[in-house]
């Protein structure tokens, strides 16, 4: 019985190797998983000799995995360091808007960029200070590994950190749910079509319009990274995924209007 | 080849297989301890043992790696969960085995077992919707807190603890209970002096298993504890545990990244705590019931 099972295992793995000889591993930002998973089945049908596996783990992990040859394609909305970028090719997908959402009881739907900076850094502690109700500001943030947080700290906070008293949620979904259910909460999410029950804040003169999402000034630039010496099929997969028509469905807008 | 020879050969093959499986398991264990231990040792040599274990500030990007807030967070959450869950689980076990008709027992066990199988992320979502607002009303603040994490964990470990307590209570011979009642003891006296006393050891063992489950839980805790890296000022303040912080930082500190080995240290601390609990269970489990 044991030998039969052993023989079957060898036969199956041998068959697997002979028919699907290439394995490509994709790893990184969980924000890109839906787009990649939407496009992959059709791509795999067109390339039956290739097997593709996809895992999340975050933008930093994706970049590290590619540079250390633990993955072939890294999904990241964080710009790699100069040293790291030298050995890599990037295939940008477009712009993924990052929206600032507030709980409905804040009484505020518009802030200036300096106000937003102070709110996110924890310098403003009450919504009354920006024209809202008498409610404490509760900042809800993503962990340090998040690409959206990286953009916020670089572009809005100009190198400062998000409030150290911020509530940390791992995913876009959990952050959205937390802001919706916590009086006085302010957070940021990568755009998703089902944002209801929260106030999407206008910042300065910019108001998010989903029909012209690429004009919104706060966005991450999700990119697929491959090593320069990667096989042609890996580069082809990255290029094909970066041109996927599914991008629009998941809120990724073309870089140029 | 005779039947006897065939049997001997089969036995030899089985013996070799089991030996190989056991050796593989032991090797995996050593590899696990070795990898974490080596990573932790390198980290301690660079950053110092005391500064890591007793340090109060944690910001891996700035090179601050104090883990005390997470150690305290883990202990506080586990303590709250156990204190809340234990009496509840004991009540379930006593009600199921001694109060309700015997024919209900199987149904109750199945229902409790199905609760024990709920994935932790579901408890996390439930915690966000129900427990966080409740804690906000009780203690003020945001509701994301050590208390909320303890309450969610309590709900998670009650089914496991109840099942273990039910199994323990079922081991008490019927004649002991009947004998106690026949001698004139009240049902309460019988419960306290006969039933609970005779299953004290398995109940303590069940409690330790539940503590282990609470200490190791990650996802549900991360969703409701708030994720702040400071020492929590009260049980109603946000905090973090060793497991929830590993989850938060695993994307930031992948293998090869500067500071990655702090995750090895956190994992090693958890492993040591779990090992301590296992030793405790073995010690208590080794005693005779009663």
Automatic annotation (TrEMBL), chain A:
<dbReference type="GO" id="GO:0006817">
    <property type="term" value="P:phosphate ion transport"/>
</dbReference>
<keyword id="KW-0449">Lipoprotein</keyword>
<protein>
    <submittedName>
        <fullName>Phosphate ABC transporter substrate-binding protein</fullName>
    </submittedName>
</protein>
<comment type="subunit">
    <text>The complex is composed of two ATP-binding proteins (PstB), two transmembrane proteins (PstC and PstA) and a solute-binding protein (PstS).</text>
</comment>
<keyword id="KW-0813">Transport</keyword>
<keyword id="KW-0592">Phosphate transport</keyword>
<dbReference type="InterPro" id="IPR050811">
    <property type="entry name" value="Phosphate_ABC_transporter"/>
</dbReference>
<keyword id="KW-0564">Palmitate</keyword>
<dbReference type="GO" id="GO:0005886">
    <property type="term" value="C:plasma membrane"/>
</dbReference>
<dbReference type="InterPro" id="IPR024370">
    <property type="entry name" value="PBP_domain"/>
</dbReference>
<comment type="function">
    <text>Part of the ABC transporter complex PstSACB involved in phosphate import.</text>
</comment>
<feature type="domain" description="PBP">
    <location>
        <begin position="23"/>
        <end position="195"/>
    </location>
</feature>
<dbReference type="Pfam" id="PF12849">
    <property type="entry name" value="PBP_like_2"/>
</dbReference>
<keyword id="KW-0732">Signal</keyword>
Automatic annotation (TrEMBL), chain B:
<protein>
    <submittedName>
        <fullName>Phosphate ABC transporter permease</fullName>
    </submittedName>
</protein>
<keyword id="KW-0592">Phosphate transport</keyword>
<dbReference type="Pfam" id="PF00528">
    <property type="entry name" value="BPD_transp_1"/>
</dbReference>
<feature type="transmembrane region" description="Helical">
    <location>
        <begin position="262"/>
        <end position="281"/>
    </location>
</feature>
<keyword id="KW-0812">Transmembrane</keyword>
<dbReference type="InterPro" id="IPR051124">
    <property type="entry name" value="Phosphate_Transport_Permease"/>
</dbReference>
<dbReference type="InterPro" id="IPR035906">
    <property type="entry name" value="MetI-like_sf"/>
</dbReference>
<feature type="transmembrane region" description="Helical">
    <location>
        <begin position="144"/>
        <end position="166"/>
    </location>
</feature>
<keyword id="KW-1133">Transmembrane helix</keyword>
<dbReference type="InterPro" id="IPR000515">
    <property type="entry name" value="MetI-like"/>
</dbReference>
<keyword id="KW-0472">Membrane</keyword>
<dbReference type="GO" id="GO:0005886">
    <property type="term" value="C:plasma membrane"/>
</dbReference>
<keyword id="KW-0813">Transport</keyword>
<feature type="transmembrane region" description="Helical">
    <location>
        <begin position="16"/>
        <end position="41"/>
    </location>
</feature>
<feature type="transmembrane region" description="Helical">
    <location>
        <begin position="112"/>
        <end position="132"/>
    </location>
</feature>
<feature type="domain" description="ABC transmembrane type-1">
    <location>
        <begin position="71"/>
        <end position="281"/>
    </location>
</feature>
<keyword id="KW-1003">Cell membrane</keyword>
<dbReference type="GO" id="GO:0055085">
    <property type="term" value="P:transmembrane transport"/>
</dbReference>
<comment type="similarity">
    <text>Belongs to the binding-protein-dependent transport system permease family. CysTW subfamily.</text>
</comment>
<dbReference type="GO" id="GO:0006817">
    <property type="term" value="P:phosphate ion transport"/>
</dbReference>
<feature type="transmembrane region" description="Helical">
    <location>
        <begin position="67"/>
        <end position="100"/>
    </location>
</feature>
